[in-house]
Design brief:
By secondary structure, the protein is of the alpha/beta class. The chain has one domain: Rossmann fold, CATH 3.40.50. 38% of the residues lie in helices and 16% in strands. The chain is globular. The structure holds adenosine monophosphate (AMP).
Length: 198
């Protein structure tokens, strides 16, 4: 089996810390791990919450960190000004499109509705054949158990016919998740939509 290599991984995570210290710790561990493997972090560009913890740890380990943030959020999410690069874009749509374009794979950490929205939109693009990049889910302390239950429900109810789970790579720790992403083999899908087309 040929192992996948990644130059840049896009990370979706909370702009809050959450109440469990383990989530912040996992964000830090992931940032440090990516940096130690020479994989650049692509993320929303903030210095608050798990976003900030991730970026700071990657930078402290000598890694490259690329932020993508819309104008309107620069104040609200407190843009991180110590990044390797900070792209300021006009809209949330542009943010997601640029993050997706820059990234070879995606990892979702614990977060709120913004994180879920980013995760689902990018995952949907995989299902539609817009990209062929894996979706990693970092399941720190079983955080995503309710999401897994919801997905099992959708599957049982017959709404996951395209088997989008083939794109999903899950693990409880950053090390296990990155190792699983390296072993990922993209399923064969019909490429019938490109970004920007409807
Ligand atoms: P949250 O998980 O709600 O803390 O948000 C995490 C990140 O998702 C933040 O950087 C938000 O700005 C971002 N976000 C929120 N809503 C959206 C959206 N509709 N599209 C893209 N990013 C979003």
């Amino acid at each position: 089996m040929t192992l996948q290599t990644y130059r840049r991984i896009g990370i979706y995570c909370g702009s809050n810390d959450g109440v469990h210290a383990g989530h912040r710790e996992a964000a830090r561990a992931l940032g440090a791990l990516l940096a130690s493997q020479g994989i650049a972090v692509v993320y929303g560009g903030g210095r608050i919450g798990l976003m900030g913890a991730l970026a700071d740890a990657a930078l402290a380990t000598g890694g490259e960190v690329i932020g993508v943030m819309p104008h309107a959020l620069v104040q609200r999410e407190v843009a991180h000004h110590g990044l390797t690069a900070l792209h300021i874009v006009d809209s949330m749509h542009e943010r997601k499109a640029l993050m997706a374009e820059l990234s070879d794979a995606f990892i979702t950490l614990p977060g709120g509705i913004g994180t879920l929205e980013e995760f689902f939109e990018t995952w949907t693009w995989a299902q539609l054949g817009v990209h062929t990049k894996p979706m990693g889910l970092l399941d720190t302390d079983g955080f995503w158990h309710p999401l897994r239950a919801l997905l099992a429900h959708l599957d049982t109810a017959g709404f996951l016919r395209g088997a989008p789970q083939q794109w999903l790579v899950q693990a409880a720790t950053p090390d296990a998740l990155l190792a699983a992403l390296h072993r990922f083999e993209a399923p064969v899908t019909r490429r019938w939509l490109r970004l920007g087309e409807t």
